[in-house]
Write a structure and sequence with these properties.
Length: 298
């Protein structure tokens, strides 16, 4: 693990937008951290918040220099999704990167990442991309994995950090790296939450005040499910569903209990509870680790 820069150190990140600049800057920043440096990478779509800040701090525990990409990737948005209104806040993003000691920001335009237009060859997410988010967002994980693979290729990190908030994305990136022998360690970082439990998300800014109040139901439901873990899978789902049913402003998309790799849930042991719901016009997702059946197993 690398820890040569104290958390809180303010460093003006270098910002590049083109591939040739990136290549040169990667050499420069790696050179500053010495011959044994290991680049730590955090891919983002910008609109950075404290949750991203935590990813950046985590990244620096694993390697330096810390490189961030800010790119709103069109290929992971469906035709009816929020690509055009996705928040773009580059100046504030760079400020946050500076506060978290980021060395280099890669902020390309679409034609830099996709110079030949939409990719004809990409990464098939396999069966894990067809469930949960993949049902409501067909093609989403093809777009995510394809851009992550391209960014890995361009940045060649030793370690890359992804938030557990997008748990299915984290599982699929791990699977891609394993299946395609990519030489990068994938680290998952815990979800950062507001005081009332709402998971931080760039999309929370779309919520009107009454929707923001209702949105907390996702995390309340997850907590109820986690607390029912000792009683087993059915009790977990029933407890979480009960909470969700009590919030008329949340239109449930799915509530699912899976094993930690998103296969079928075990009867006992470690599992993941995942939820997606629309609150007003905003689709929110959240998830939590659950231990099943401890009471029965002891
Ligand atoms: O999680 C995100 O912000 C995006 O899906 C990612 C990983 C940056 C790919 O565009």
């Amino acid at each position: 693990m690398a820890t040569s820069k104290a958390p809180g150190t303010v460093v003006e990140p270098r910002v590049v937008t083109r591939r040739d600049q990136l290549e040169e800057a990667l050499g420069d920043v790696a050179g500053r951290h010495g011959p044994t440096s290991r680049t730590a990478f955090v891919p983002t779509m910008g609109a950075l918040h404290a949750g991203h800040g935590a990813l950046l701090d985590e990244a620096r525990r694993y390697g330096e220099p810390v490189v961030v990409s800010i790119f709103v990737n069109p290929t992971q948005f469906g035709p009816a999704e929020d690509l055009s209104r996705y928040p773009r806040t580059l100046a504030a993003d760079l400020e946050l990167c500076g506060r978290h000691g980021v060395d280099l920001v890669f902020a390309p335009d679409v034609d830099v990442v996709y110079p030949d237009g939409p990719p004809q060859v990409g990464v098939d997410p396999g069966p894990g991309g067809q469930i949960l988010e993949g049902v409501s967002r067909p093609g989403h994980f093809y777009g995510v994995l394809t851009v992550v693979a391209k960014l890995f290729e361009l940045i060649r990190p030793g370690v890359a950090v992804f938030g557990e908030k997008d748990y299915q994305q984290l599982v699929l990136v791990r699977r891609m790296v394993g299946d395609l022998c990519m030489p990068v360690e994938v680290v998952g970082a815990p979800t950062v939450r507001e005081n009332d439990g709402l998971a931080l998300s760039s999309r929370n800014r779309y919520l009107a005040p009454d929707e923001r109040r209702a949105a907390v139901v996702l995390s309340v439901a997850l907590r109820a499910g986690v607390a029912a873990g000792p009683q087993g899978p059915d009790a977990v789902l029933a407890a979480a569903a009960d909470v969700l049913a009590g919030e008329p402003m949340a239109a449930l998309d799915y509530l699912a209990l899976r094993d930690v790799d998103l296969g079928q849930a075990p009867a006992t042991g470690r599992a993941r509870l995942l939820v997606a719901a629309k609150v007003g016009g905003t689709r929110l997702i959240d998830n939590a680790a659950v231990t099943l059946g401890e009471a029965g197993a002891q």
